[in-house]
Every structure is written in C-alpha cells, then in structure tokens.
Amino acid sequence: QVQRQDSGPGLLKPSQTLSLTCTVSSGSLLTAPYWWIRQPPGKGLEWVGAMRTTGSPLYNPSVKSRASISRDTSKNQITLQLNSVTPEDTAVYYCAGGSGFSWGQGTQVTVSS
C-alpha cells in the first residue's frame, strides 16, 4: 500500500521537469502494480502511468514521450518524471496501487510562467 507521497515541487515553469516520489509498503512493488494518476482542475481522473511488478513501466499515450517511471525496490519507492511540462500538466498527482489499491494524499503541481 501507499505509505507516503512526497510533496513535490508545487510550482513549475513551462519546460521544467516534474519529479514525484512515492514510498510504498515493503516488498509490495514486487507483488502489485502502482499507478500515477492525476486530476486537472475541474476535470476527472487521468492515469499517467504505472509500474508493473516486473519492473516494466506503462504509460498513457498522451504523456509517453515525456514521462518516465522508475522504481527502487531497496527503498520501496516509485518515481515519476515528466519532462517539458506545460500548463496542461497542472493537476493534483496521486500515487495509488498495491493489493488493496490505496491512494496517496495527492500532490498539487502547478505549471505557470
């Protein structure tokens, strides 16, 4: 399950890189997938990507060229990097997953010049 979602950068300028880290329960990266999901203001949830138990990431085609999801099993962490952000990337970002599909508390990311 998700244990902690880092607060992240908060405010980014266009073209910068977003980096978010999520800490999950020990060993669970090997037994259940974890997802990065975002919710833009006034819109519904959108999946950004996922880390499979095999260590192979999966990306939403809308961000695939800019996104990178990695994991560190020794730290029980998954990380999302999103390059070349634009104002359209403004959203609350959630880490979610595990056997019970728990959610992190969410991180507000605003992209603005």
What does this structure look like?
Helix content is about 0%, strand content about 50%. The chain contains no helices and eleven strands. Strand 5 and strand 6 form a beta hairpin. The model has no long low-confidence stretch (mean pLDDT about 95). The strands form two sheets. Strands 2, 4, 5, 6, 9, 10 and 11 form a seven-stranded mixed sheet that branches. The protein has a four-stranded antiparallel sheet with strand order 1-3-8-7, with no helix packed on it. The chain is globular. It is mostly beta strands and about 110 residues long.
Share of residues in strands = over 45%
Spans of at least 5 consecutive residues with low confidence: none
Alpha-beta classification: mainly beta
Measured as a percent range, the helix fraction is under 10%
Q: Mean of residue pLDDT?
A: 95
Largest sheet: 7 strands, mixed
Structure summarized in a few sentences:
This protein is mostly beta strands. It has strands at 2-5, 11-12, 18-24, 34-39, 46-51, 57-59, 67-72, 77-82, 91-97, 102-103, 107-111.
Helices, strands, pairings?
Blueprint: E1 2-5, E2 11-12, E3 18-24, E4 34-39, E5 46-51, E6 57-59, E7 67-72, E8 77-82, E9 91-97, E10 102-103, E11 107-111
Parallel strand pairs: 2-11
Antiparallel strand pairs: 1-3, 3-8, 4-5, 4-9, 5-6, 7-8, 9-10, 9-11
